[in-house]
Amino acid sequence: MDIIILTGLSGAGKSEASSAFEDIGYYCVDNLPPALLKKFAELCVQSGDQQSNIVVTVDIRSYKSFDELFEVIDQLRGSGVRCDVVFLEAEDKVLINRYKQTRRRHPLVSDDSDSASLEKALRMERGMLSSVKGCANYIIDTSLLSAAQLKERIISTFSDSEYGSMVITCTSFGYKYGIPADADLVFDVRCLPNPFYVPELKEKTGVEADVREYVMRWPQTKGLFERLYARIDYLLPLYSTEGKRQLTIAVGCTGGKHRSVVFASEIQKYLQAKEIKAVINHRDMLK
After folding, report:
1. What is the DSSP string of the chain?
2. Enclosing domain of residue 191
3. Where does a domain end: 135, 158, 181?
4. pLDDT band at 49, cuts 50/70/90?
5. pLDDT surpassing 80 at residue 140
6. Does the pLDDT at position 52 exceed 90?
7. Which end of the chain is more exposed for a tag (fewer CB within 10 A), N or C?
């Protein structure tokens, strides 16, 4: 039996993520008290339930039971049940905007929320959830993800039979928009010739053949790839030994449209050739 604890900041997309899990065959339970989690798993086994993939959403309403949650996770793992924690987060300004759009009230705000009280509630929630985030196997920053993109991220990570092995997200980004908050490894390719200054390439992106050919033609590009691949080959076994199941490799250029897109795509192909599950995310390519 595989159990996923889905948690994270209020407004970060737990409902959308839960729906995505349901779409790929997980049985989803909303806000099951941690004290009942182990008993729930035992009942599923005793009843002969064929449902082996379960998602339990736990939010800030269960804060007082988080210590018990950690104990239950350890007990489940000790009994042979795979139990992972997926944590969703987002930037404060994004969460505030989402609350304004939906007109929903944050769980830690008792009165109608204005910006000041909502900001305070978000700070409190981050502090209260820090221990849970610290033990998460998967951390997904949804700040720049639409509901459809979050669903795609969940499906690409958990839908196939290789669930439980390391999943690597190769992300391209532009430094002018900030480094991805969920990046584990960050590589800077701004040192390479920039297609932006080639008139016929300026408005194109790194997924187009002529831009890729321009980026790949330089000797320094080949040298940089050799060194990046060597570093990735050295680090992945170390992360795997430590039990890390999700890794984000972020490659940045100035605008996230040309060089970083080529590099992220090539790194994904390199990993896939090694039969490592790797997904792609061109965060800023269309900006």
Report:
1. -EEEEEEESTTSSHHHHHHHHHHTT-EEEES--HHHHHHHHHHHHHTT----EEEEE--GGGGGGHHHHHHHHHHHHHTT-EEEEEEEE--HHHHHHHHHHHTPPPTT--S---HHHHHHHHHHHHHHHHHHHHT-SEEEE-TT--HHHHHHHHHHHHSSTTBTB-EEEEEEEEGGG---TT-SEEEE-TTSPPGGGSTTTTTS-TTSHHHHHHHHTSHHHHHHHHHHHHHHHHHHHHHHHTT--EEEEEEEESSSSSHHHHHHHHHHHHHHHTT-EEEEEETTTT-
2. 167-282
3. 158
4. low
5. yes
6. no
7. C
